UniProtKB/TrEMBL annotation:
GO molecular function annotations of the record: electron-transferring-flavoprotein dehydrogenase activity; flavin adenine dinucleotide binding
Family per similarity comment: Belongs to the FAD-dependent oxidoreductase family.
FAD/NAD(P)-binding domain span: 6-313
Name this polypeptide is given: FAD/NAD(P)-binding domain-containing protein
InterPro entries: FAD/NAD-bd_sf, FAD/NAD-binding_dom
SUPFAM superfamilies, A to Z: FAD/NAD(P)-binding domain (SSF51905)
The entry's keywords: FAD, Flavoprotein, Oxidoreductase
Any single Pfam family the record assigns to this protein: Pyr_redox_2
GO cellular component assignments: cytoplasm
Amino acid sequence: MAETRNIVILGASYAGSGAAHYFLKHVYPHLPKSSKVTYRVILVDPSAKWYLRHASPRAIASEELMPTKHVFLNTVDGFKQYGDAFQFIQGSATSWNPETRIVTISTGHGKEEQLPYHALVLATGTKTTSPLFSLQGTPHTDIQAALRTVRDQVSRAKKIVIAGGGPAGVETAGELGEMLNGSAGWFSSWPSHITTEITLITNSSKLLPKLRESIAKQAETYLNRVGVEVRYNTKVSSATGPSNGKTTVLLHDGEELIADLYIPATGLVPMSEYVPSRLLDGNGYVKNNPETLRVDEAGPMVYAVGDIGTYSRNGIMDIMDGVPVVNSNLKRDLLAAHENVDAKPTGPDRKWKATAAETQLVPVGQSKGVGAVFGWRVPSIFVWLIKGRTFMISESAVKDSLMGKNWEKEKAWDGK
């Protein structure tokens, strides 16, 4: 009977699904065919559905603008094309023993599964303070309930406070502002009639930390045009409530804001509770080699990709560039160890290099946006066309993401 070697990938969001598709398309076909050894990808995630979190700002604003069914995809549907080479387990990693090379998976109702691995890819990512912007390591039904609640609050709110000057905060403020207040006319900087007061709070001196000052100021201008006030150098100390439909937001200087709706759009927490502490940095991220993306201290053929790894700056480009690196090096490891599991590959590894150039697109409302691509500032219409028009949730784009079409072509590497 053939030995089955498990390639276990923990996490099925952008990084995990991407790593699985890339492996099955570009690594699996090149592994030796043998009657003694077979390989199988096992993708593990607490949620059976993938939440397209990049569209969360518009999903928060309105079911009509961004239907729930468009931002939750059935993970398994995208992998049926690979047949028996793929398996999905709905469950959460609760512990991991690098010495025995076993991950313990909780599959619910008190049941656990001991999952041995030949290779392991950690891609559990991060979660946001608010359940609106990301899955929280729980089933997708939790975030669907949170979206229903916030949409009901939005429909009745007269004062909204949003904390966070990054893309999530700016995009959410812009979506809510334009939907509730409309937009200013040609010669005005504010809407003629404010239906809902919206305040965006940031503890920084500028919005959008990854973009230059002039682009950040343009984002503020667009926010003002949809009735959003921006407050800089201000930190939220606490938020209590809701009580009687109101939330009290306490600022660092003692000022209190009373809001009908408070949305925290700050902070990322790595979902690494299952990882031995010796493999984590001081902030809870998995320590991986900044070039090969291996987790060197965890034994052979262990990798981290996406937000969970210390190499990452918590951006989509680090996933897009990291997935090919992980798979190229994993392919080298697997080929070397096919006959002798202790054998190491010869020659150079593929190395990850950070994309230093300024790259980020931030829609502000349904018709404007700011951003830069590889250091080049782009006009508002470009941001709208690429992202703001649909938040990249067209039928074809969603299908391509689900089926791994964006990984159809292998990213070339010269082996140096």
